[in-house]
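DATA SHEET
Item: assembly model
Revision: 1
Owner: S.N.
Input lines:
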Amino acid sequence: MRIDRTALADLATGAAFLGSGGGGDPYYSQLLGEAELARVDSFEVVPLDSLADDALVVPCGWIGAPTVSVEKLPSGREALAGLRRLEQEIGRPIDAVLPIEIGGGNGLAPLVSAARLGVPVVDADGMGRAFPESQMAIFNIHGLSACPSVLTAACGSLNVIETDDNLTHERVARGLSVALGGIAHMVEYPLSGRQAKDHAIGGSVSAAIAAGAAIRLARASGDDPFEALYAALRASGLYPFAGEIFDGKIVDLERETRGGFSVGRVVIESFGGGDRMDLEFQNENLIARRNGEVVAMVPDLITVMDRETADSITTERLKYGQRVKIVGAAAPAMLREAQALKFVGPAAFGFGDAYRPIEELNGWTQA
Amino acid sequence: MRIDRTALADLATGAAFLGSGGGGDPYYSQLLGEAELARVDSFEVVPLDSLADDALVVPCGWIGAPTVSVEKLPSGREALAGLRRLEQEIGRPIDAVLPIEIGGGNGLAPLVSAARLGVPVVDADGMGRAFPESQMAIFNIHGLSACPSVLTAACGSLNVIETDDNLTHERVARGLSVALGGIAHMVEYPLSGRQAKDHAIGGSVSAAIAAGAAIRLARASGDDPFEALYAALRASGLYPFAGEIFDGKIVDLERETRGGFSVGRVVIESFGGGDRMDLEFQNENLIARRNGEVVAMVPDLITVMDRETADSITTERLKYGQRVKIVGAAAPAMLREAQALKFVGPAAFGFGDAYRPIEELNGWTQA
């Protein structure tokens, strides 16, 4: 599959939704992608099953607070420097790159990195959405090591990290991202082709493109972009349920940048004023309560979207007064397994509620 | 020169004084050194001028808040793991190790690291005392790069750091030390033998041993250990002036662990109650004011010592009510050059006062 300017824009739209509020605003990644498309004709995306078992396949993306990423520009050399250094660490060239998370800007950023390195991007990612912490990747859930990883920053700093466990790795990388100004590029969880095929969440790049295209085409033809999005998500096979969980206006917002994250809560009131939704987020939206009752929780997707344009609004872009729809979607099946819920379920974020699937909480049945 | 158990104890005593309150309490390093002496017969220390020009010579030591180091024990594998990794980075074996700073525990710690690696320690260091930040090393002052450096922590984390400049390197290493629990081992400023000979502060290990021996012998013979210390410092050639700048009791103490440092101030009152001394510290004692007038300032040495035993008291060991003498000493000449004062003079620590030598402030003339 080749990604041209239109597909890039669709990927940005789709990744913004799949980010569940996080992963960084895709707009900058899209601009950087467009600039790169002036140099290369298109970006190459290959299916997971095309990888040789002994290939070296490397997830990458940005780590840090999205609130910082909208103000502090990258130097443009971070990703390539990190990938080259990982090749040096492992002693062989990288064969393909994949997004560590499909959500937000991180769903697009590897396209440019891969083009610079001269390798394709794999149609897969490590989270099936966006999550705030590195150990929430499916590769950690399945017991693979994040190391050696390479963290690079705009100031030219390059750090090779080796830790015994992935939780320490996250703590080290987070500390570094804070020390280096709040945002850094990370190459982590180096995989063999076999490991990528066994563990990555396949098809997520094309699912994001399809979701974005559905919104674009519905807008052009005057159809409802939300319904088009839900249909595209369900059709992808990765996100079998999707739908609106609230409609209203943002009436309260608390947000701070703390410990390298953008953390807070937002309250949305229905237009009649009778109902309210409370969302809590740590980079990503984590839990949604309607009139005090939980209606969606991690790892299921919760995205705030502009109710007129169907643009996804990342947590750092939330503003008082925005008129929004809150859209939920079922997480990919791999993220709902018991082992996965330990790392990406409500308890992993400090919530007392046991995980319940979004379709059950909302009484959705397969369309 | 071979370091046996007695010389190790003398080095601990001398390094504690040269630490100017910082560098970490030498007691733990001494215990670790004694344990190592059960395995090796003695530690080998070689003079700077014995190094081949093309030797690989590596400064190392601990980075972090001394307040943490007294509570959190090392795993014991940090230093060797870091040195081995640096060899791998540079692609050749290390020929000798030196203390990044002679002050405090860091003056002793490299003895054990070197013995494990099977190489000698050089009779030299990078600070001629202890300083709180990595870019305060003479190697940075003289324009050498701290990188590649390797930072290792008790949890098993290993980090190779490469930065364009040494100030960013300090920021990254500090952020890492905080993320890894407040204390970590660092191998930095890898040098050729030629560079070590041109830039290191030679003779500081033997000066520390001589200072410690002087105190030990004076105690044994009933002489004044303070006068013995001053004489030994002057005789070393590195610290040409030394003497008492205050005598009294600690009546006030503020200390907090902030940004990876132990930061605070201490007030000492004379026994008659008529005079007071104010000391400010960031790991190390930085400036001493007697009745409001500056009487000693960085890079000159300021150490709080027990007035009965002549034990040096590091800043994390200061307590209300301690009866102390405040002892000052002239810094090695290399630290007083204009280029050095930019990095280790009062302005580098945020003080408005211009640097004035301790002998001038106190009207000391050469003995």
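QC remark: Chain B touches chain A through 21 residues (CB under 8 Å).
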